[in-house]
Amino acid sequence: MVIAAGAACILVNNKGFGPLWLTGLALLVAGMLMRRAMTRAQRPPHDEAVPLTLDVPVNGRWMARNGPATKVPSHTHNLAQTYAIDLARRPAPDPVWLWPMARHPRSYPSFGEVLLAPAEGRVVTATDGQRDHLSRSSLAGVLYTLVEGFVRSLGHPRHLLGNHLVLDLGDGVYAVFAHLRRRSLKVVVGDRVAAGQPLAECGNSGNSSEPHLHFQLMDGPDITSARGLRFAWRYQDDDGKEHAGVPADNTCIVPVRAATTGQSDLYTAP
Q: Which InterPro entries match (predicted)?
């Protein structure tokens, strides 16, 4: 909000380098310093615990993007996204340079896919009132996303997360599901859920270029002060090899259900 106030002061100023312009500049600098301090405060310590093994929160074949197996922080330390990962159903429409500039979210197989609880837990945050916007599937769309993402970052985190929910998994561990489909929540705050229970549907709300799931773990319920936590999944890649960990970027995976069932039965997509 401080950055937004500073930008507003500069934009409405029409008297040159006067008091209003200087006030705006001071607010911009202060806001950037505050954001930097927040990001540093949310950087996880070096003595991290062993990753928590969870079930993959989807069914079928999905591609991993922007994950911690490829880069840490995978997104940013801000908003506890240090070890976050994005999952999108594949195959999906290919990106284009010029046309169409955008696609309806229903054009993507991720849209409307059911998302599952990765472990037993309790719902502590649940919101699904934001719209599912068009994709950003062209060069113009990507440029628009950069501007839109900056504007969204000036407000409340919900503008970035879109529709989202937070699960308390116990022992100080919280799971975040972001970019959910509008009006798709199947749970409410206070509900206890079992591993594998449907929670909501994948959507394209918030700071999202195409329908996908943004998933992360953190050590507190408040995304503005918590720190990211590592996690591990059991999955099978396209070569049929089973893994325990987090898939690298652009790896397509199918869940192996073992973390909660005690069995190594491979889920086969219909």
A: Cell_wall_metabolism_enzyme, Dup_hybrid_motif, M23ase_b-sheet_dom
Average pLDDT score over residue span 249-257:
95
d(CA 102, CA 140): 9
**Same domain? 108 vs 145:** yes
Q: What share of the chain is helix, strand, coil (3-state, %, to 5)?
A: 20, 25, 50
44 CB burial (10 A radius; 0-12, 13-18, 19+): buried
Residue 198, preceding peptide bond in cis (omega within 30° of 0):
no
Q: What is the CATH number of the domain that holds 186?
A: 2.70.70.10
* 0.85 exceeded by pTM: no
Total number of domains in the chain: 2
pLDDT level of residue 142 (50, 70, 90 thresholds): confident
Q: Distance (Å, rounded) from C-alpha 81 to C-alpha 159?
A: 15
pLDDT for 79-108, tens place per residue? Answer: 999 999 999 999 888 777 778 888 999 999
135/222 same-domain check = yes
Q: Which helix (H) or strand (E) holds 149?
A: helix 139-153
47 part of a folded domain: no
pLDDT digits (tens, 9 = 90+) for 28-55: 555 565 566 666 778 888 666 789 999 9
Distance from C-alpha of 247 to C-alpha of 232, rounded to nearest angstrom = 9
Domain hosting residue 180, numbered range: 52-266
- Other Cβ atoms within 10 Å of 260 Cβ, number: 16
- Integer Cα distance of 182 and 179 in angstroms: 9
* The predicted structure's pLDDT at residue 119: 97
